[in-house]
Amino acid sequence: MRACLLLLSFLSLFGYCAFAQDEMHMPEGNSDRGRLIFGQCRTCHYPEKSVGHNNGPSLHQIFGKVVGSQQGFDYYSDFFAKASFVWTPTFMFHWLANPMQMFPESTMMSLGVVDPQERADLIAYLVEASE
Ligand code: HEC
After folding, report:
1. Residues 6+ away with beta carbon under 8 Å from 11
2. What is the pTM for the complete model shown?
3. Coil, strand, or helix at residue 42?
4. What CATH code is carried by the domain that includes residue 13?
């Protein structure tokens, strides 16, 4: 009986993990498509090294950096300035689905990108543009 219960909880744990992994799944991105999708961000951000900040911080080499730490950008919200998470492609993939819902304290005014494939494309473009 005990073994059976153990097995049951193991199975439900496994089921949960499979679900969580599915939720986390980011499709393969295409940077050419991503360049066009980034158009809506470009009013406030540039990813190219030479261009610098706009209304929003430069997104050059944003992956691997702590949020709110782009040198020389003086207009971060208190929230981003104090937060300490690191931008990864997967995290950005989730955040961009609805940035204002995830972090209402941030001052970034963007509805994000609803379509998961478009988010993955945008991220592939940001990675490429940072090289
Ligand atoms: C209307 C201007 C505006 C638009 C449009 C916009 N952003 Fe932002 N973004 C900002 C501002 C301002 C901040 C700083 C927010 C804060 O400090 O709370 C920011 C912050 C960010 C950050 C965090 C940077 C860091 O240094 O930690 C990322 C990543 C980002 N934006 C990506 C995007 C992407 C991708 C899009 C397009 C889907 C986009 N933004 C659209 C203004 C904008």
Report:
1. none
2. 0.86
3. helix
4. 1.10.760.10
Q: Tokens 């995830």 label which residue?
A: 102
Question: What's the CA gap between 51 and 77, in Å, rounded?
Answer: 22
| CB of 58 closer than 8 Å to CB of 76 | no
**Token pair listed for 12:** 């439900």
Q: Is residue 38 in a domain?
A: yes
Residue 24 falls inside a structural domain: no
The secondary structure element, H or E, covering residue 2 is: helix 2-24
Q: How far is CA 68 from the centre of its chain?
A: 14
Calculate how far, in angstroms, residue 104's C-alpha sits from the geometric centre of ligand 1: 13
Answer whether 59 contacts ligand 1 (Cβ < 6 A): yes
CA 45 – ligand 1 centroid, Å? 7
Q: Kindly list the distances between the CA atom of residue 128 and the CA atoms of 34, 59, 82, 108, in Å, as whole numbers in the listed order.
A: 10, 12, 28, 23
Residue-wise pLDDT for 57-115, tens only, equals: 999 999 999 999 999 999 999 999 999 999 999 999 999 999 999 999 999 999 999 99
